From TrEMBL:
Boundaries of every Nucleoside diphosphate kinase-like domain copy: 81-218
Signal peptide span: none
Active site: 195
Protein name: Nucleoside diphosphate kinase
SMART domains (UniProt xref): NDK (SM00562)
Lineage start: Eukaryota, Viridiplantae, Streptophyta, Embryophyta, Tracheophyta
Length: 229
């Protein structure tokens, strides 16, 4: 009880000290002992900012950390009118998914400028996938693309290249988000139903590769004023 009386003094002024402590010379020992004890207890409790680095209680430091973080999405659509080449692969044609896939781009608001059902020759498939020529799966890929008819499409619109890639989804359908073409309609990379150009430059190159002169159509959809300003 004597120790409680010493530590329980008021926050200001001189604490009341029991006469028994002062008389027997125990005052200085009791004060120093309890102060050291309280300091050791406080030292044992580390600040939260050391225990949890992700959410420190130091609000000013936390605000600075939040301001420093910048989120950059992987795919950022351009505001320029672009062209892209979309191809429904043999598995998509064989499974009767042509109408379903075309409707995804139509509903988005892009303009179809070229469309044909086409049996791809080996030479054209090799030229299209020439960047993958060194890969071990290249022969199998060529055999797959030439195994049946494909649907060749040219699409035009603002930011169409990146937006089309988002509509298509990840290369591996199991990693593709629900709502994307591959996320909804495919399960294996080797049967991922559709191809899309990965850049505006490749979009132009692939359209020129798959469509002959005169096969593209220039036209203005009546819905255009309702799609873009």
């Amino acid at each position: 009880m004597d120790a409680v009386a010493v530590l329980g003094g008021g926050a200001t002024g001189t604490p009341r000290v029991p006469s028994s402590l002062a008389k027997h010379g125990r005052l200085s020992y009791t004060l120093s002992h309890n102060i050291n004890l309280r300091a050791s207890h406080l030292a044992a409790v580390q600040p939260l900012c050391r225990l949890f680095n992700y959410s420190p209680p130091c609000h000013s430091a936390f605000r600075k950390a939040r301001k420093a973080r910048v989120f950059l999405p992987r795919l950022v659509a351009s505001m320029e009118v672009e062209e892209t080449y979309i191809m429904i692969k043999p598995d998509g044609v064989q499974r009767g998914l042509v109408g379903e896939i075309i409707s995804r781009f139509e509903k988005k608001g892009f303009k179809l400028t070229g469309l044909k059902l086409f049996q791809c020759p080996t030479e054209l498939a090799q030229e299209h996938y020439k960047d993958l020529q060194s890969k071990p799966f290249f022969p199998k890929l060529i055999s797959y693309i030439t195994s049946g008819p494909v649907v060749c499409m040219a699409w035009e619109g603002v930011g169409v290249v990146t937006s089309a890639r988002k509509l298509i989804g990840a290369t591996n359908p199991l990693n593709a988000e629900p709502g994307t073409i591959r996320g909804d309609l495919a399960v294996q990379t080797g049967r991922n139903v559709v191809h899309g150009s990965d850049s505006p430059e490749n979009g132009k190159r692939e359209i020129a590769l798959w469509f002959k002169e005169g096969e593209l159509c220039e036209w203005t959809p009546v819905q255009e004023p309702w799609v873009k300003e």
